[in-house]
Input
Amino acid sequence: MNDPLSKDGYVLEFEDSFDSDDLDESRWLPYYLPHWSSREATATRYRIGDGVLRLLIEEDQQPWSPEYDGGIRVSSLQTGLFAGPVGSGIGQLRFKPGLLVREAQQNTRLYTPRYGLFEMRAKAIDDPRCMVALWMIGYEDRPERSAEICICEIFGREVTPDRAAVGMGLHPWGDPSIQDEFAAEVVAIDAREFHTYAAEWTPEHVAFYLDQRLVKVVEQSPNYPMQFMLNIYEFPDDPKAPVQARPYPKEFTVDYVRGYRRAP
Output
């Protein structure tokens, strides 16, 4: 990244500043991997107002897929969707063996770039049962096109007023050309306040930034279209947790998400 502040050499091609009254469904699908469950069970809970998006976990919310993921609750947005027929094992993010498509989906590409610069300005949450994230996964129209670029992943149990552990890096999932290279980087920020998380994805590497400061570079790169995943998770209660969970609703506040492509 030549100039992180001006995005020198890049052209803006995707932006959502959440300034309208409702979600722009030309940019986002308001579900979480619905092929492994259903659109109804994975429908996103959110509020938009005052120029921000708030992804919510609410007290009456049900787990997104008790069959495959136990008691985990999620509110998520994604910019693409690919799945095979009901009963098949064809679908994005095969996160465990034995997954079968439970509901037919319309395959959709709203924003599936190949290389670029991507950033989000957001506030995390310090709830010990929650995690928030912005990540990219392969569109997975072929099983090997399935790696993940995690721009940021923040567990509430790792957030304090003066530090946070921010996960960033690559996961291969079903891509044999990618090695797992992911770590939670400890940074001196209060992640409950707004910060900018970014990744520059090139054919040679992926570089990760926090508030326009380079944090790490991974010297490998997926070479196929990928989509955004933006979400908040709540995990089942741990009675041994040293910190009590926060009241509902749990909120992940996002100011904007942007995507840039290389200028010609």
User: Anything to note?
Assistant: The helical segments are 66-69. Residues 163 and 188 are 4 Å apart (CA to CA).
